[in-house]
Specification:
By secondary structure, the chain is an alpha+beta fold. The protein is 50% helix and 22% strand. The chain has helices at residues 2-11, 37-47, 104-139, 151-180, 185-195; strands at residues 24-32, 61-69, 72-76, 79-83, 86-98, 143-144. The strands form two sheets. A three-stranded mixed sheet has the order 1-5-2. A three-stranded antiparallel sheet has the order 3-4-6, with helices on one face. Helix 1 runs parallel beside helix 3, helix 2 (37-47) crosses helix 5 and helix 3 (104-139) runs antiparallel to helix 5. It is elongated and about 70 Å long. The two termini are 24 Å apart.
């Protein structure tokens, strides 16, 4: 329940004035096999996404690609004014998918498991969406005085983007630490799948 409330809270966060864009969200399944919860989970361990720098595979992964069009640095007299431009955010959820039909009881258990895993990944997606709104709020209209060449403005944008990105990464890690920790939601979901039919 805590997970669903967190997703709802993140999605309800106030958005910056740039609400005209929408993220593109897509699911990229990877095949797993098995006829029991234990076999399915073992297949996840063998076929799940391998995240950069990790030695073990994970159940699911959320990645994003962010590009901007129209970001502009405009001299205005002796000052420099920054326009954030329009973002294009593509979020990809990599999730496991059984390669064949499952027995009814296993299917029911699997449906609960994958719904919980998907909700977990959607929280990561929501933080990425909020990150883009934070970027817009931090740099759109930014004015740096006595910077007609926009040199300091560009450096300030990089500094602000770096801080926002690091904050998102830390928030995601903290969320995963809770979810995979003792009594965490994902631990419970995995346990229910493995010990089920």
């Amino acid at each position: 329940m805590r997970l669903y409330l967190l997703v709802a809270a993140l999605l309800a966060l106030p958005l910056a004035a740039h609400a005209e864009w929408k993220p593109v969200e897509r699911i990229e399944p990877y095949a797993i096999s098995g006829r029991t919860g234990q076999e399915l989970y073992r297949s996840i361990g063998e076929n799940g996404p391998l995240i950069r720098g990790a030695k073990t595979r994970t159940i699911a992964y959320t990645n994003f690609k962010l590009t901007w069009s129209g970001r502009d640095y405009k001299p205005r007299g002796k000052d420099c004014v920054v326009a954030s431009g329009k973002p294009k955010l593509v979020i990809t959820y990599t999730l496991p998918k059984p390669s064949g039909p499952l027995p009814a009881a296993v299917q029911k258990s699997w449906d609960s498991f994958i719904a919980g895993v998907t909700a977990h990944e959607k929280v990561h997606g929501a933080t990425m969406i909020q990150m883009v709104h934070d970027v817009e709020a931090a740099i759109d209209g930014l004015t740096i005085a006595d910077d007609s060449r926009c040199t300091r403005a560009r450096a300030e944008v990089v500094t602000r983007l770096d801080a926002i990105s690091k904050a998102r990464v830390l928030a995601s890690r903290d969320f995963d630490r809770v979810e995979f920790g003792q009594d965490g939601n994902l631990i419970k979901l995995a346990f229910a799948l493995v010990t089920g039919p």
